[in-house]
Amino acid sequence: MSESKSDFPSLSNQLLVSMPLLDDPNFAKTVILICQHNEDGAMGIVVNRVLTHSLGDIFLELSLPITDLSHMNAPVYDGGPVQREIGFVIHNGDKCDWDSSISINDSLCLTTSRDILSAMAEGKGPQKAVLGLGYAGWGPGQLEEEIKNNAWFSTPADADIIFLGNIDDKWHNAAGLLGIDYRKLSSQVGHA
C-alpha cells in the first residue's frame, strides 16, 4: 500500500540522489532536481549526465538567431528517459515569466518554451541556466516506494550543484551536503 500524500512530504525543490546500489542504467549515480511532486507523482531533471550536444548545437538546430556566443559550448544534459525530444530549462530568476514556466522555489524555475532559448541565444536570458532533454517521472506513490527501498535520498536543492562545478563531481557533492561518504554506505542503509 503506497503512502498518502500527507504521510510523505513533497520533494519539490529537493535534489534526489541515487544510492550506490541503484543499478538502473537510466539512474545509476544520478542527481535529479525534483521540480514537481504531488499526489499525481513526481517529475525532475537529471543535472549530472551530459549528452554529446552543446547548447550551441540546439540553437542551430532550432534556427535561432545567435548574437551571444557565451552559451555555445554549454553542455546539454540527459534530463531523463521520458520525452527526450523536449527541452527543459532549469534557470534562476524570481519570476517565471516565460511562455511555459513553473516555479520550483523563490529563485528557480523550469521552462519548456522556445522563447527562453531564443533569449539565451541573444544574451537576454537568465544569468544561470541548464538545458536537459527529457525528464525523469514517477507515478503516484512510485517515488515514495523507491525511497523506502533505499534507491534514493534527498537533500535541499543547491544552486551550485545544479549550475556549477565539475559534472563528474556532482553526485559526490550532493551526498556531501548531508555529510554522507558513499564509500561508507551499505545496501542496508535505512533498514531497522
SSE map:
Elements: E1 14-18, E2 31-38, E3 41-46, E4 50-54, H1 55-61, E5 75-78, E6 82-92, E7 101-105, E8 108-111, H2 114-121, E9 129-138, H3 142-148, E10 152-156, H4 159-163, H5 170-176
Describe this structure in words.
Strands 1, 2, 3, 4, 5, 6, 7, 8, 9 and 10 form a ten-stranded mixed sheet that branches. This protein is globular. It has five helices and ten strands, in the order E-E-E-E-H-E-E-E-E-H-E-H-E-H-H. It has helices at 55-61, 114-121, 142-148, 159-163, 170-176, and strands spanning 14-18, 31-38, 41-46, 50-54, 75-78, 82-92, 101-105, 108-111, 129-138, 152-156. Residues 1-6 have low confidence and may be disordered. Helices cover 18% and strands 33% of the residues. By secondary structure, it is α+β, with helices and mostly antiparallel strands. It has a single domain (12-184), classed as VC0467-like (3-Layer(aba) Sandwich), CATH 3.40.1740. The longest helix is centred in the middle third of the chain and has 8 residues, at 114-121.
